[in-house]
Amino acid sequence: MDNKRIITIVAVILVVAIVIGAAWALTQPTPPTQKTIYYKVYAPKVQNTVIGNHTVDGGVMWEPYVSATVLAGTGTVLVNSKTLWPKHPCCVVIVRQDFATANPKLVNATLKAHIEANKWIADTVANKTTDPATYQKLLGIGANFSGVSQAVVAAALGDMILDYHLTAEFESGMVNFTNMYIDLNATSMANVNAKGYSSVQNFIDEYTVESYLLAANAVQPSAVSLGEVRMAYLTGDLHQFARVVAMDKTILPSGKSLFEQYGVTIVDPQPGGFANGGDEMTAFAAASGKPDMGYLGSPPAILKYLNGDVTKLNVRVVAAANSEGSALVVDHDIHSVADLDGKIIASPGETSIQHLMLIKIAKQNGMVVVKK
Amino acid sequence: MPSSSAARYKSRVTYWFKTGKYKDIMVMAASLVGFIALWWIASDIANTTYLPNPAQVFEALVESFQGGNPQFGILPMQQNIEASITRFVEGFALAFAVALPVGLLMGYLRFGEDIGRPIVEIFRPIPPIAWVPFFLIILGSFWGPIWTIFLGAFFPILSNIIFGVRSVDPTLLDAAKTLGAKRITIFTKVVLPSTVPFIMAGVTIGVGIAWMCIVAAEMLGAEGGGVGSYIQAENNLSNYPEMFAGMVVIAILGIVTLGIARILEKQVSPWRGKK
């Protein structure tokens, strides 16, 4: 090898080293001036693992993963969403406007199954001492869906309110979320106005449609199929327990699911469910293969609708699924929100209610949330 | 522009005109303008926020350098570019550093090939993107994307090196042997220089694949941001002009790195057969 070649090789190595060094130096974060909680996106299902292996210091998650993480001994609840926002709205059922207009009976029947599933869960929990076998069945259905133990499902059931009613309180909570998103520059009043709403209150009034739920009360079982519903949901999310129960074929003596009993054939547009509500809303905007109905958190349903194009993404909230049921779970070394300065918290995604909760907690304590 | 031919002309512009190269440039410019015009028309016809027009994207691109919304994962663009380039360099350097010795050994020694080939053949068909969720959990969001880039760049470089070693002119090998060269000398003086153009071809292919991997990996999660993370974060909030601005940045970065790889390839390839 001649000298020229050696010099060239050394020069190339030096240049590469300098580029790497410079890039590394440039990307070193400058110490933040404000107290900061960092976040990384991890699905709630894996948050127990990443807290356990110290990849993160905590996580904001939905049930049953709050209970799973606590019962596994991995972490403790630092802030529960019910203390932050008592009786706050969480998951909802949405429907595509064009689908609802074309298939009102199918939507009513689907919501009837949703209502009956909620009632069945409520009755089963209320009668758990007198009818432990049915209660065990409920726990088994939840455990099977979420991949957790029955003890975890039992704890999760105590941490959330499963209710289908679109109450004034529920809608007022949705107004609150919309205002938060506007304050955080995630959407704008201009977007609200551009969709034809005069105010946030007016938007939520129009965006939540109770008529299908009211009509659903009169729906009777149907021997014939009324049609197919492509139903979206979130992975392992027990806030949407009613859907899981309504899909189960063991709770009715007929061997049919509740959906089938009311003539609804459920098709799964995304086997395994969506990772978060934002992704689910994106699927509702897709050119083809859109879901017809879906269970998801109310914040992504609000945010993605306001920021989206109504010609592609036009949905309405037609029922509630649950209130409360989320928490910030942290490593045992963390004892207060102040301890979170500089720590990393797992979030299911920026459009989730859990993320909004993390931002709210930070804000209340004079901190900011920044992506790690 | 080759320096020898350029020297015959007073300036680059004269060179373009005298050689008729200006026609190529004009056609290329027209193609680009035509593309932007088509995009604009398509955006107007579609009339949806999901397909912004070039002006909206340009505006979003300029604004992307002026702040962001870190609470929703939107970091300033310059920070994303730095993060992506660093990740790219680290992943690519790692791939090159491993592929070079492994490829040379697998190409030169039958034993090396027997050991390496089954493993390589098992892993090669798996798209690097398929590893992303696993890497994110096991290695975290710092090393996860880097290893995804590593996998993307590693196999094209490796395949090219093995092919390069096998393609060494047998006459050269025979001549070296006849002249009494030792095995190590044949390797450093004949095999290695002959393989250089193949290494560089592998690098060029690897660069392209690495960029695709980086965006996909960053979209699922990357520490310190990255242009892929930026695209995903803007998509989360349905900010489509901003999302397209991120795609434009990826295109520019891809073109620049590929250009650098091609220049390197041109510079390094003449080594072949010098000695």
Helix and strand layout, with pairings?
The complex is a heterodimer of chains A (372) and B (275).
Chain A: H1 3-27, E1 36-41, H2 44-52, E2 58-62, H3 65-71, E3 76-80, H4 81-84, E4 91-96, H5 97-102, H6 104-126, H7 132-146, H8 150-157, E5 161-162, H9 168-183, H10 189-194, H11 200-207, H12 211-216, E6 227-232, H13 241-247, H14 258-261, E7 264-267, H15 277-284, E8 293-297, H16 298-307, E9 315-320, E10 322-323, E11 326-330, E12 344-347, H17 353-364, E13 368-371
Parallel strand pairs in A: 1-12, 1-13, 2-12, 6-7, 6-8
Antiparallel strand pairs in A: 2-11, 3-11, 4-8, 4-9, 5-10
Helix pairs in contact in A: 2-3, 3-8, 6-13, 7-8, 9-11, 9-16, 15-16
Chain B: H1 3-6, H2 12-19, H3 21-46, H4 54-64, H5 77-108, H6 110-123, H7 128-138, H8 140-166, H9 170-178, H10 183-220, H11 227-236, H12 240-268
Helix pairs in contact in B: 4-12, 5-6, 5-8, 5-10, 5-11, 7-8, 7-10, 8-10, 9-10, 10-11, 10-12, 11-12
Structure, described:
The complex is a heterodimer of chains A (372) and B (275). By secondary structure, chain A is an alpha/beta fold. In chain A, 47% of the residues lie in helices and 16% in strands. Chain B is an all-alpha fold and 275 residues long.
Overall number of domains of chain A: 3
- Rg of chain A, Cα atoms, Å: 24 Å
Estimate the global geometry of chain A from the Cα principal axes: globular
Residue share in helix of chain B: over 70%
User: Which class of the largest domain in chain B in CATH terms?
Assistant: Mainly Alpha
Most extensive chain-chain interface: A-B, 43 and 36 residues
CATH superfamily of the largest domain in chain B: MetI-like
Round the mean pLDDT of chain A to the nearest integer and report it.
92
Kindly report how far apart the N and C termini of chain A lie.
47 Å
Helix/strand/pairing category of chain B: mainly alpha
Are there runs of chain B of 5+ residues with pLDDT below 50, and where? none
Number of strands of chain A: 13
Q: What can be said about the biggest beta sheet of chain A?
A: 6 strands, mixed
Helix content of chain A: 40-55%
Distance between the termini of chain B: 27 Å
